[in-house]
Amino acid sequence: MAVTRDDLKKRIGQALGETKADLVIKDTRFLNVVTGEIAAGDIALCGDRIVGTYESYDGAEEIDGRGLTVVPGFIDTHVHCESTCVTPMEFDRCVLPRGTTTAICDPHEICNVLGEKGLRYFLDCAEGTVLDLRVQLSSCVPATELETSGARLEAADLLRHKDHPKVLGLAEFMNFPGVFHKVDGVLDKLAAFDGRHIDGHAPLLSGRELNAYLSCGIRNCHETTSAPEAMEKLRKGMQVLIRDGSVSKDVHALAPVIQPETSPFLGFCTDDRNPLDIAEEGHMDHLIRSAIRLGAPLAHVYRAATWSAARGFGLFDRGLVAPGQRADLVLLDDLETCAVNRVIRNGRVVTPATFAGRPAVSPVGLRSVRLHPVTAEDFAVPAAGSVQSVIGVLPGKIITAHLRLEVPARNGALVADPDRDILKICVFARHGTNQNVGRGFASGFHFREGALASSVGHDSHNICVVGASDEDMAVAVNRLIELQGGFVAVRNGAVVGELALPLAGLMSLEPFETVERHLRSLRASVREMGCPLAEPFLQLAFLPLPVIPHLKITDRGLVDVDKFALVNA
């Protein structure tokens, strides 16, 4: 909404103390992320703006700020709301009370299922959330040509939404091999958004390839997993977004990178974080306290989570406790542990009532799993040599190892070997355009019987299932078809845990508290199966992502990501 002359007069009068401010946080302390100092005084708000600091003010409404420390609202610089397993409206209700006042999302999960229909759903939600949900236009739908997605978005499709008020630019550009091979469709998207913000996705990219990638106007990367990798990217002018999601946890490795010189060029993001982890650990507040606990300088951690994040995305109206800035503030009981007392968004204290009256957005994609029931025979892998490429799952990482292991055969077919932690993994195309099945083996799940199946399979979201027996794998996939998406755990032919995700096969229609309870029960069931992974379903969901090294699987088969080609054997 455009500011008026009367709005400015009101701000000026309240800043000068000629009239009472709309809201004043009295006798408080606040962190100045410019100087690093802890300042004392009042903070005066007029509508959705800060109009006074370092001075004394009276307010029409006042908050006693004694014992509290005020910081700018936190900014999640890269998130897939779909991966929280709840709708954007429930994501809003889940994370805003924890201090996340701005979130920059890439809806490429739903776009890979529903195309522009999914994108429009997210734009409609973004106009109704209390937190400021910004939308990046999904650049890789599909992510690659090595998989079958449910939709395709070309440059012309994205340009139709370029000037939407919630759109910042182009979302994570995962197809870096397409950049190096100068693929026309890839370059068309980059050219269409030249001069606008373009998010990066460049795991392990370095040297001349990193130079080439950055030369296309790509500005950041959330896939950095080591300090040397981060430093090369920073030296070359790339903003590094430090991630801690439900699977990929990079704060520990990257906390040493947070220094006075680097903090203006950093940010924090969750990428993929479910309601159970948010309930048990937190959201952006968790990343902040983790970095501080690991020894990163406190003021520079908060700078990265607020001011630096905002500046990296051209959001110059937020990220400081300073006059003229948006009144998105977090009141903390303790600065070091980022203990949130309350949150102010757009000049108003957030309460449960804050979320009442938001516009309802109708769900989409409720019949998106177009896969016929399967049988155990559909999982057969013909024997073609005993030594096979096997996906090596690495706990807490979406990077995988490319193992070469001997896989046993029985009756002319390769079979799982649970005693050696070799399970079968299959991906079934579920969008109704073909009947592809990718078959292979994975190591790292460690359960000896049963199966896990998911309709969340980044980024094309086909049905991915891993198991010790073909029979249990079939039961799991068929239950997913009945649920129209979600997570299913099966043991000895019986479903022992499930979570329905019927909205595009990605999101629940239930409140986030209900999803949290289901995830907690599901996690317990999988642990009883013997799987030690902290987030087995999300770990499974990343195995079909053929833009993350080193070995993945799609509905077309095993993919050697380093060669960007299908594996024959």
Number of helices: 16
Molecular shape:
elongated
Count of individual beta strands:
30
- List the uncertain runs: none
Query: What amount of the residues lies in strands?
Result: 25-35%
State the separation between the terminal residues, measured CA to CA.
59 Å
Radius of gyration: 24 Å
Helical content class: 25-40%
Structural class: alpha/beta
Family: Belongs to the metallo-dependent hydrolases superfamily. Adenine deaminase family.
GO molecular function, one term: adenine deaminase activity
Pfam families: Adenine_deam_C, Amidohydro_1
EC number: 3.5.4.2
What are the key terms here?
569 residues; alpha/beta; 8-stranded mixed β-sheet; 27% strand; elongated; manganese
